[in-house]
Task: inverse folding
DNA sequence: TGTAAAGCGTTACTTTATAACATGTCAATT
DNA sequence: AATTGACATGTTATAAAGTAACGCTTTACA
């Protein structure tokens, strides 16, 4: 039973609702922290919420600039870094890119599944992965502070076709 | 019971033996594949084997250049990319850097533990992590081709001191 | 020994990211 | 309402990381 507020990136869903829900949760999370969702930050988050893909800082910057915000790299990096610190955006290291968090405000240990066909990025629930990683670290008496777990491969749609389904997927 | 051929990066060990073993295994693995360990490639691997740290491509390049090899970025990237394809070097995406594989020729699903104190990088056995990740992907019908699992934190030595123990650790 | 493939060195360039500083905005206090 | 101090934004400039493309050299092997 799919939860309309937490759809999987790879599966068709009401994306307007999906993005709206994420934005609402993000606003709530920021208010709770007593930090400000300024226009640049809000717009940055909106841009990332438009699709289940990861965007490079310069892609975001281009969008921001065309909306009348500053057009120098720090403008984008500052907004992205802020949102990442607040847990509203995840950095996909493999892609040097950023993607909106689909579970803002919730405790979660995400693993990212990156489709090399359509470039969709799904945030998979990965509590078990996190626990296994924690166990592996403990065996070496290592204290984990932050971690990134990413997998590259093919989403269900792209695995089934010769040509990847780049178009149409939010 | 510590295995002298597979020491943990964080623990003191006979590093000459550790590196020598890794180089020998690497040579065997390459011979098996019928590919060539040219002087630049060999030297690149040696450089990475000198310490349990990750080096940026430009750090490696500097070393190669001072040894009389070419001093342009592609020289380092080609050697590093080759070694990574052959499974002799791992790329640490969080650091934009490369580290020598400690288990060349063996099937292994490594997780990398990166100490932010001394910058040591340990390759933790993580079969369970890999399995959990595979399970999380299967739940979304995603096919994993490659993955990277990295954790940032403190190694046992650095966790126990105010000042990180940067010096002396191989 | 000719030749095709692989490797190396170089030039030039693109992409990604940050340091540093000036300007502007906001909200809490006098 | 004016002051102030912290936070946020815009800008210049530069650093760091990574790649495309070309020509020469070496190697494997027919």
Result:
């Amino acid at each position: 039973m799919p939860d309309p507020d937490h759809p999987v990136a790879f599966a068709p869903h009401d994306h307007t609702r999906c993005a709206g829900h994420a934005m609402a949760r993000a606003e709530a999370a920021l208010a709770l922290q007593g930090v400000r969702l300024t226009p640049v930050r809000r717009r940055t988050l909106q841009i990332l919420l438009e699709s289940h893909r990861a965007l490079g800082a310069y892609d975001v910057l281009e969008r921001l600039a065309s909306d009348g915000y500053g057009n120098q790299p720090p403008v984008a990096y500052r907004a992205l870094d802020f949102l990442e610190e607040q847990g509203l955006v995840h950095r996909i290291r493999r892609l040097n890119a950023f993607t909106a968090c689909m579970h803002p405000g919730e405790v979660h240990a995400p693993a990212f599944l990156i489709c090399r066909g359509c470039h969709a990025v799904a945030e998979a629930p990965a509590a078990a992965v996190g626990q296994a990683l924690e166990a592996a670290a403990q065996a070496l008496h290592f204290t984990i502070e932050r971690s990134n777990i990413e997998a590259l491969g093919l989403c269900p749609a792209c695995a089934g076709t010769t040509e990847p389904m780049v178009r149409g997927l939010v």
Notes: The mean pLDDT of chain A is 91.
